Amino acid sequence: MLGKIYKELITIILLFLVCWYAFILLKPSTDIDFSVSSEMEESLGDKMALQIIGDLGGESDDSARTLIIDTIQNRLLASLETTRFNYEFHLVNSTQINAFAGMGGHIFITTGIVDFCETPEQLAAIIAHEMGHVEHRHVLTKLSRDLGVAVLILISSGGDPSILAEVISHTVSTSFSRNHEEEADDFGLKLLEKSRLKPVHMATVFIKLKTHTKDQSIEIPAFFSTHPDLSDRINNAAKYKTKDDFSEVPFELE
Amino acid sequence: MSRIYAEIPQPEEVSTREREDAMGAYLMMFGALAAGLPLPIINLIAAVVYYYVNRNKGRFVKFHTLQSLYSQFPTTILNAGLIFWTIRILTLTGNPETWESDNPFAENSLFWGYLCVVITANLLYFIFSIVGAVRARKGRMYYFLFFGKLAYHRAFSGPDSAATGHVNAPPK
Prior knowledge:
The structure holds 2 protein chains of 2 kinds. Chain A is mainly α. Chain A has helices at 2-25, 38-56, 63-79, 111-116, 120-135, 138-147, 149-156, 161-173, 178-194, 200-216, 230-239, and strands at residues 88-92, 99-101, 106-110. Chain B has helices spanning 16-36, 41-54, 59-93, 109-137, 147-156, 161-164. In chain B, helix 2 (41-54) runs antiparallel to helix 3 and helix 3 (59-93) runs antiparallel to helix 4 (109-137).
């Protein structure tokens, strides 16, 4: 009898563990699967980019800064075998220290953050992070999460661009979720390594931004979100292990 | 050495009073359950008290009260764990200001899995308790997985002196 009791005890414990594991696997994803095609997102992103650039103070025609952005984007894009979108990098006239991903491959970089970064490698780290948001379609996911299916229907039906622009402007200016930031960091670190740039540049620029925002008591830029924990993000970036044969090829910019 | 177990009483040998007391062991839980939320320990205390009050009312009653009590242990521990984990998330990791984008409950897979297991365990406990109560009312035995055998082992182990007609039992 005691033998049977022990057997059934083990059965119950195993059942408990198996059920727990099964329920973990069955957890519905918090990222909503929606039927907005990449082409549709790209087309919408094109329309919205103009509005966002206008809101931020227009596109900069500064040749030196544009050269830096072009050089970085060429290096990063060359390291990606395929991309979800045709990327467009916009240098925006704004003293704000900010960079963020829009929809459909648009990435907005302020002149403020270009000046803030001490090296092109640091700026590349920020841009690589933003490309992570683009490749994972985080803006669209965030839209559906924050504002519901109604916005997706509006997008799918090609709704009023001015309303959509307002909605998207709001979305891109607020921070992403912890999972999204981690995904973007992870993507950015891998992309830096592929591009023969040290991933540690991401940690360096994060520390610099952290110190700056603390010293100036200014609002932390959306892309440099306070969650997940800032120290964790810095640690993750600093601890990223590159392959043994990795060596950095710095940008040759004056 | 194999253990000696007393004979199990057949339905016709179980009095109405015993049947009702045995059924009460399961039904008492539902009253305690309402009082016990959000403190599952109250259910457990109620089960222990019920057992001590009824344990000398015959092996049939003892078996059902023990089965009810034993099955209450894991349910209580699971429920208490859920409450503790929820409070921990709320107080340590939860920041309501960021919940619009970061819901600590939705993004914690371990917690989600545990929550589902606890809900399932409570549902099973509820269903088995109802079945146990109905069977007890009919004077029948009903064995839960593991807890049934454990309760049987405790309630029926040792020869039944009344059944064999022996008044004097050997020293224990």
